Amino acid sequence: MEMEWGTVPAASIAGMAFTLAVSVAVPVILAVLIRKRTGAKISDFFIGCGIFVGFALILEQILHTVVQLTAGAFLQKNIFLYGLYGGLAAALFEETGRLAAMQYFMKKSLDKGNALMYGAGHGGAEAVLTVGLTYVNNLIISLTINSGVLQRSLSAAGMSGNADMQTALYEQLSALWQTPAYVFWLAGVERAAAMGLQICFSVLVYKAVKAGMRRGSIKYFAAAFLIHFGVDFVAVVSSGIGLPVWSVELEIAVIAAAVGAATVRIYKADRAHTMKMQKQKTWQHEITGFEGSTVLFGVNIFDHEWKKTGQRVKVRDPLYKQEYLFPIYTVVIRGEEHEFAAGEFSNSVWGFFTLS
User: Fold this and answer.
1) Which of 257, 276, 295 is the last residue of a domain?
2) Is 53 found in the same domain as 194?
3) For residue 277, is pLDDT > 70?
């Protein structure tokens, strides 16, 4: 049987390239920006990646396999039950993994910056592994179809003599030129929205963990869980009842925008509260010492990693009364976070200030 191979439109190929760039490049760019703006540890990006793989791609998939074997036919008969199950499973595994990461793997250095870095890693791994790799494949195959390389390779391999195999492959690949171009572009938009949501969920869970998961703060974890469930439920049900792709992606984008706006307000309110508390206290000179050998908080402060907060404070040299604008840092010592301002009074002579 002679197959009439189509040509993958340029707009579709551009959409694939766009989605691939969003899925692969955006997580890296986010990690660099977060590192630059907050001083967050790059290792937390990879913790986010690892948690997604372990909890979503391994543990969650084990559950799906068991459910599919035992109740798959029943669930698929009712799209609302199927959406309910899918949303709960995704929220349960991913938010539990996020909580475990922040409570155990990131406990000693957990702050807002590291929460953002974790979210970029979690969402980045999801983007690369669930969409990015697929679009690498789509893009390569599309280019080989348009150049005729694929067709010649199939003929050289003797595929033309196997009608059934050739038909199956043709029907599979024909989606590349028959699918509307906008669908490939929308996949990138959806990934951007999903990464934004993953960062928002990370900020919410951070708020709960930082406050010790007490009654007043557990609402943030509950919010992350319920929103995550809601997004997946809406996506599954909307697709299942036959809504067009653009409509489903628009729903997700609207939800992501609303959640993002609310999370930004929470993030800014938390920062404003911190700054207000700082203003109510005064920065007092704690010690002046030489670089590499100054004891602060009971340890040689130069032996520990300092993290910039992005804020500065005006201080005065207690000896010469000269004013300086020193950056504010945080440091974790024996599992407890401390805040201090520090800078050089002169070459290798450092002044340290703490709030009191």
Assistant:
1) 276
2) yes
3) no
